Amino acid sequence: METLQVAIVGAGPSGLYAAEAITGQDQYGYAVDVIDQLPTPFGLLRYGVAPDHLKIKSLAEKFQGIIDDPQVHFLGNVEVGRDITVDELRERYHAVIYAYGSASDRKLNIPGEDLPGCLSAREFVAWYSGYPDTSLPVDLDHPAVAVIGLGNVAVDVARILGLPAAELDYTDMPSYVLEALNASSVQAIHLLGRRGPLDVKFGLKEFRELTQCRGIGVHVDPADLVFTAAEQERIAGDRTLARLVDLLQELAVRPVDPTERQVYLDFWSTPTAVLGTDHVTGLEITDTRTKQVRRVEVAMVLKAAGYLGVPLPGLPFDERAAVVPSEEDRVLRDGQPSLGEYVTGWIGRGATGVIGVNRHHARNTIAALLADAPALLARERSGDALGLLRERGVAVVTEEGWSSIDAAEIALGATAGRARTKISSRLDLLATGTE
Ligand SMILES: Cc1cc2nc3c(=O)[nH]c(=O)nc-3n(C[C@H](O)[C@H](O)[C@H](O)COP(=O)(O)OP(=O)(O)OC[C@H]3O[C@@H](n4cnc5c(N)ncnc54)[C@H](O)[C@@H]3O)c2cc1C
């Protein structure tokens, strides 16, 4: 049986689901290298999914099973485009699958956006998830925060900011994160959405969870729950929307408990300026219906307007859609499918979709690759990537190195009675994960 040599760029859910789809077929032998710039696998499952969402976090065990396949190798701490080029990968493998996710975010393009204290939810999530070498981008020593966006990431951020730190004690957050959350003075969290309650992006389940958290009160202005006849018809025809409206109506009459942190849903609100001279002091908000302008005092603005893909040197990029251009998951170079190059996950279709969606996508990507396999196997190949990286002095974290990191994190967690505590310094990760 002929062996397909495949490189996957990105060890997040998409890359690992692509590896799974290769290991699950029996037409060809395979040798798969899953390369990640981080010393650790699992991408946003480790550094995006909220630390208190244990059920989804437990998918890590399933992904670990994919890495444990003897023909699948993890090459961590290797940044494609810096440590090894796209062309060097193409020379060494029959196929390269790009699964490198979305490492940037949407801008608001409003004055004051670059002031200290205004940052993306992505940066804040990275901080509380212990992403290597991310320091607290702002302090939490202020009573009010604005979060721009009404999607699931905004809800996650509001929950982490709102929960008493003791409620997060059992998670894998680094201890300095828990200490900072414990010392937080934040009392009010404004969630801003440019449209009304019928057009929120968050899921009902995720929002309901926020409303049920101990220590968090959620407020809705009853005036925002007056609907036109057409809207009422829309609500009546959509069970999920009807349940959301029921929940919002219940929240609108719920008495305020002053001992709780308060989350305000500010519908029909768009930020038009971040205020301050050397740090954020407030936000100018315009009502999207009446155009009336108001100001709220906040010391931190978190933009949760969506993640965005970034270009990889040597690979085509569609700037408008912020994805690698593709047709049926084959990378397009000069408008033509490039033999041996594929995309999957967020970098292929844009930063949307929960983890399970990537599995379906990865299966389609591998179906395209397998259809091309006879032509791929006929391609000339030479050299091995690990050898080249070692020659260059790159401190590669292999699957054994990752196992050592994993064990060290579990041991660190045990010292505090937790299942795991993440190591967040890249130097410490490398000291544990490399020979
Ligand atoms: C804040 C947040 C919370 C979420 N919560 C949930 C949830 O609760 N449930 C759910 O189902 N989904 C959730 N999602 C969605 C889920 O995380 C995504 O569907 C999934 O992670 C996308 O997978 P991916 O592999 O395409 O990208 P990623 O997970 O981003 O993985 C990409 C990988 O590529 C690596 N990489 C990037 N550039 C390079 C390079 N140049 N060289 C080498 N490696 C590189 C990155 O380090 C990363 O490990 C959440 C997303 C976010 C942002």
Tell me what you see in this structure.
- It is a single chain.
- The chain is an alpha/beta fold and 435 residues long.
- The chain folds into two domains: 3-103 and 309-396, NAD(P)-binding Rossmann-like Domain (Rossmann fold); 106-304, FAD/NAD(P)-binding domain, CATH 3.50.50.
- It has 16 helices and 18 strands.
- The chain has a seven-stranded mixed sheet with strand order 3-2-1-4-18-17-16, sandwiched between helices.
- Strand 16 and strand 17 (330-333) form a beta hairpin.
- It is globular, with a radius of gyration of 23 Å.
- The protein starts with a strand and ends with a helix.
- Residues 9-15, 35-38, 43-45, 48-49, 53, 56, 79-81, 99-101, 103, 125, 153, 156, 307, 312, 345-346, 353-355, 358 line the site of flavin-adenine dinucleotide.
For this entry, give a set of tags.
single chain; 435 residues; alpha/beta; Rossmann fold; FAD/NAD(P)-binding domain; 2 domains; 7-stranded mixed sheet; 6-stranded parallel sheet; 16 helices; 18 strands; 20% strand; globular; binds flavin-adenine dinucleotide
